[in-house]
Amino acid sequence: MQKTLFAGAIALLISMTAGAQSAKYTEAMTKNIALLDSAKSVDQLLSLASTFDRIGDAEKTQWLPYYYAALAQTWIGWMPATTDKDANAQKINAYLAKAEAIEKNSETYAIENMAATQQMLVDPQTRWSTNGKDAAAALQKGLELDPNNPRLYYLQAMSLFGTPTQYGGGKDKAKPLFEKSIALYKSAQPNPLYPTWGEKQAENMLAQCQ
């Protein structure tokens, strides 16, 4: 009887501790995701990338903190002031490697696509056969895992939008993909803490295709 009570008390204590840790994790992630959504400077994004990385290191079994660290670093790469896209991509991929060691999914492939795209844009003519192919492959793998991920269609549309018409791109090719992306955003029911970015960007780009 005493052993049963003792075992029950230990189980309850473990359950309460796990619940407290889960609540602390959710609170920290919710707070920093909101900060990421409103971040505008390199310093803010660097700070958030480090914060998400620390959360991931503390949790050890969650891929989302490392994903958001990589996403923050990705936003830095799109800024004109970031001149060394290769160095920035290395930082993105370092965070991404931690996330994908836990779980590789359509969202991590979206980050892979953006990191490779940033490197390709350094010199599109010479890097299309390497970084360009890596970016396209990441999109394809992501779509195979989740054909309803709106971010993947947004990124695919962005690639076509920026590709000259003589090479199979242009606004007409990009438009239906922006439309599909937006439709999927409207119907999505995202899980708590999961990525939701891209809808406003897709709507803005669609307006440029009219």
* Total beta strand runs: 0
Question: What is the C-alpha radius of gyration, as a whole number of Å?
Answer: 20 Å
Coarse morphology: globular
Question: How many distinct helices?
Answer: 9
Q: Provide the succession of SSEs.
A: HHHHHHHHH
- In whole angstroms, the N-to-C terminal distance is 75 Å
Share in helix: over 70%
Task: Write down the domain tally.
Answer: 2
Q: Which structural traits does this protein have?
A:
2 domains; mainly alpha; 210 residues
What does this 3D model show about the protein?
By secondary structure, the chain is an all-alpha fold. The chain has 9 helices and no strands. Helix 3 (64-77) runs parallel beside helix 5. It is globular and about 55 Å long. The N and C termini lie far apart (75 Å).
Brief sketch in words of this structure:
By secondary structure, the chain is mainly alpha-helical.
What is this structure's SSE topology?
Layout: H1 2-38, H2 42-59, H3 64-77, H4 85-102, H5 106-120, H6 124-145, H7 150-161, H8 171-187, H9 199-207
Helix pairs in contact: 1-2, 2-3, 3-4, 3-5, 4-5, 5-6, 7-8, 7-9, 8-9
